[in-house]
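Tutorial sheet, problem 5. The two components below are modelled jointly, 226 residues in total.
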Amino acid sequence: GAVVSQHPSRVICKSGTSVKIECRSLDFQATTMFWYRQFPKQSLMLMATSNEGSKATYEQGVEKDKFLINHASLTLSTLTVTSAHPEDSSFYICSARDLGQDAYEQYFGPGTRLTVT
Amino acid sequence: GQNIDQPTEMTATEGAIVQINCTYQTSGFNGLFWYQQHAGEAPTFLSYNVLDGLEEKGRFSSFLSRSKGYSYLLLKELQMKDSASYLCAVLDSNYQLIWGAGTKLIIKP
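Model answer (structure tokens):
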């Protein structure tokens, strides 16, 4: 149980275009989903926290107009990188918290590697 | 501020035992997690400690001392596949995960 999927796993896009990444909890309902970014040889950096049906909470320094997050249901959250630039190239990982669990464990998706050319 | 410290890199020999330490200073404490992350992959859950003491799970054990702000992950009978980064993360008073930078573990034959 507790499986989180992400799509796509890899994406290459041209500078100036937008890319949407989907995060789904497959066998549980997620009250909260998290979006992380990870640059090579660095740890996870939390970008934003999203709760179903409400606006996402962005971490300091993360542009909310550039990284659009939509958490429309208890099983789906999307991250759209708008007007992508090469410096946005990174490994984007989502995680979800199970509505029915108390341990606050986060289940991670497999990640999406974004390359902006 | 909130801070989690763990060694950047460690090297150990196949079949041996290694202990990865983590010290933390956070605003509140609601538990400490250890995750394993292989290169290019997402983290996978290893352990969760919220009370003091040792939790054993197969070859992996995790220890917590809340009074000392200290935890360690103990890996026994090391295998080559254990080569990975090990991330320590603390759940703070807002139930937000605060992440350490990770410890890269290199296993040599």
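Marking note: Residues 3 and 80 of chain A are 22 Å apart (CA to CA). Full credit if you identified this.
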